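Long-time lurker, first post.

We've been arguing in lab meeting about whether S-adenosylmethionine would sit comfortably in this protein at all. Half the group thinks yes, half thinks no, and nobody has a model to point at. So I'm putting the question to the forum: if I give you the sequence and the SMILES, can you give me back a predicted structure of the complex? Inputs are below. Any interpretation is welcome too.
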Amino acid sequence: MVDIILDPAELEGWVAELREGKKYRSLSLPDSTLQDLILQELPRHKSKADAMQAVRKKLHNLVAPYLGDPDYQQAEIDLRDAFQSGSRERVLEICLQLLESHASTRERIPFMEDFYRQLFTYTGKPQVILDLACGLNPFAIPWMNLDAGVQYHAFDIHQPRVQLINSFLQGWGCQPLASQQDILVEPPRIHADAAFFFKEAHRFEQRQHGCNRAFWQALDVKFLLVSLPTRNLTGQHSLLERQRSLVHNTLKGLDWKVEELIFQDEMVFCIQPGVKGER
Ligand SMILES: C[S@@+](CC[C@H](N)C(=O)[O-])C[C@H]1O[C@@H](n2cnc3c(N)ncnc32)[C@H](O)[C@@H]1O
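Top reply:
Settle the argument with this. Predicted structure of the protein with S-adenosylmethionine, as tokens:
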């Protein structure tokens, strides 16, 4: 196959076309994400048109609009009013509505208190947390029973989500530590007690086969909590063995300690990077 060459101006043109297109304009996606998708796809295709089509498909999977979104502007107003009114009940009501609006968090609501209780029984109560590819999960903070002063670093590529999360963190009394960052292109280097990487590792594999290994190795965390769904979106097929293979293939030869916690439709691999496991 002949390599397709894009000069820097053409690459910038492609990035701008994707960033400013009707579908993604409001998300202000990072240029680094768009560049990475283009540069990953180019060598795999015979023509520029095929490559661009493949990039659009990858972007659709990455942004996953089908998982759901709230009305971000309305949520900003509702949260601001709730914090101003001083009603904790109203703040929790809005958090629940936000968790409901996205499939990943909606599925976790029925067991989320038990979920975090069990995770922190295993890891100890974290003081510094990374929520990697966080989606709307930071709105579960009221059910995490964290200590005051916790540093909650949340990362997502979706700018309206990041902005809303920072408004919430500030109102809730935490530092606004949510960042718009592509964690695959630029893995966070912050030293943390626990990193949450929930329901995204299988999607990372679709973006770039095998990329989880270098990503997990780049993190500086005591516990890496990787969760994966145990059922597909229609709820029909058990994915337990497939998810175990993903994690064990990713860690092949590393000999890191891994323990599993299984909840209703989600399993968590509690990984201790650098700590030898018994296998
Ligand atoms: C399937 S949702 C999972 C949300 C959350 N982790 C949970 O389980 O509730 C995936 C989220 O990851 C974000 N995302 C995908 N790839 C990312 C990347 N490379 N860097 C940062 N965020 C990413 C998406 O924008 C989306 O909000």
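For your lab meeting: Strands lie at 128-132, 151-156, 178-180, 191-198, 220-229, 256-262, 266-276. The two ends are 43 Å apart (CA to CA). Whichever side wins, do check it experimentally.
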